[in-house]
Specification:
By secondary structure, the chain is an alpha/beta fold. Helix content is 41%, strand content 21%. It contains 15 helices and 15 strands.
Length: 384
């Protein structure tokens, strides 16, 4: 099993209107207090795990982790390495916004040990960036990409498409510009109106209408065609990379392997235990001060639940799933994993592929992934 560590930084300078992640805006952050809290949380996880293998990946997510002091990042990495050790090729990713202020930290973040950065560019169009509530402009984004290349071995760029009224020509031109930058990894997300976000309120009030499903599907197909032609095929529904440049950390999730999660709202999966931590930063800090950890739930998963989760994650991947391998891993019956009648139907329709005991969703099926998962994965898995 891969061993991965996720560290959540909960703060942002502003809350983006589309964002439903656990992010908060606060005036003034006590970095020294956060270092103590996160180190204690790491040590608590160490007391709960018996991992012998070193960490293969670490991911600083958020929030906006590039707002962290590089000295804090350095301290946490030193602590994690002391606890678990690092694989020789450990992947250490940090999410960053491309503002000029944050880009000035790149040299120090690289010196602290970050070797991969995920830049939340979101668009190369200033009007779209304003609509999305971003604090940078396209010029800053291009500058941050150039700066990041100087300091990090690997670089990923995030973009949001299927915006209101976006046409195929508009998106093709923008994506062409991004592909011309020559990055090895792109995370390309369709704009989704999530509940309890400002965009959800805006749509309800008629401020704007989301792009309709048919046009969004057309943009999805265009995206896959263009990235494939450029040598960055989709290896997951929204992620594209040159072969060998896939996010090892995210593959840990999608292949349903163990990972430790610390920080406000962080989830984890370790040795069949699902962990959840306090979401609100103040509650998280108070819990750490009180008992040296902020776990609100540590629930043992049964084999059927783990198998179901593994299916739901694995079918997001282009590589699909090995049904027999999953059945053996979780001790469930192979014929209880997948609804065979539905699988045959969707295979005939060209939405699902089957080969030598493996199964996956085709490019044509990926736009319908959520619906397909609900149909394919058996609701009640039976232990063998």
């Amino acid at each position: 099993m891969a061993r991965a560590l996720y560290i959540h930084w909960p703060y942002c300078l502003a809350k983006c209107p589309y964002c439903d992640f656990n992010s908060h805006v606060r005036v003034g952050v006590d970095h020294a207090r956060w270092k103590t809290a996160l180190v204690n949380d790491l040590r608590y996880e160490a007391s709960q795990t018996v991992y012998q293998e070193p960490l293969t990946s670490i991911f600083f997510g958020g929030g906006t982790p590039s707002l962290m002091l590089p000295s804090l990042v350095d301290g946490l990495l030193r602590e994690a390495e002391g606890i678990w050790g690092f694989a020789s090729d450990v992947e250490i990713t940090l999410e960053a916004n491309p503002s000029s202020v944050e880009a000035t930290k790149f040299a120090d973040l690289s010196a602290a040990g970050i070797n991969r950065v995920s830049l939340g560019v979101q668009s190369l169009r200033d009007d779209a960036l304003r609509f999305l509530g971003r604090l940078h402009d396209a010029r800053e984004a291009l500058g941050a990409i150039e700066t990041a290349r100087k300091f990090f071995e690997r670089l990923s760029v995030d973009l949001i498409y299927a915006r209101p009224d976006q046409t195929g020509a508009d998106w093709a031109n923008e994506l062409d510009e991004v592909l011309a930058l020559g990055t090895d990894h792109l995370s390309l997300y369709q704009l989704t109106i999530e509940p309890a976000t400002r965009f959800a309120t805006d749509v309800r009030r008629g401020v704007f209408d989301p792009l309709d499903n048919d046009r969004a599907a057309d943009l999805f197909a265009l995206t896959r065609d263009m990235t494939e032609a450029a040598g960055l095929p989709a290896y997951e529904i929204s992620n594209h990379a040159r072969p060998g440049q896939e996010s090892r950390h995210n593959l840990t999730y999608w292949r349903y392997q163990d990972y430790v999660g610390i920080g406000p709202g962080a989830h984890g999966r370790r040795s069949g235990i699902a962990t959840v931590r306090h979401r609100k930063p103040e509650n998280y800090l108070a819990a750490i001060a009180d008992r040296n950890h902020a776990v609100t739930e540590a629930r043992e998963l049964d084999r059927a639940e783990m198998a179901s989760e593994a299916l739901l994650m694995g079918l997001r991947l282009r590589e699909g799933i090995d049904i027999q391998s999953l059945a053996s891993r979780f001790g469930v019956k192979p014929d209880a994993l997948i609804d065979e009648t539905k699988a045959s139907l969707y295979t005939d329709l060209g939405l699902v592929w089957r080969k030598a005991g493996c199964m996956g969703v085709t490019a044509e099926g990926m736009p319908l992934l959520d619906a397909l998962l609900g149909e394919l994965v058996c609701g009640e898995l039976v232990a063998s």
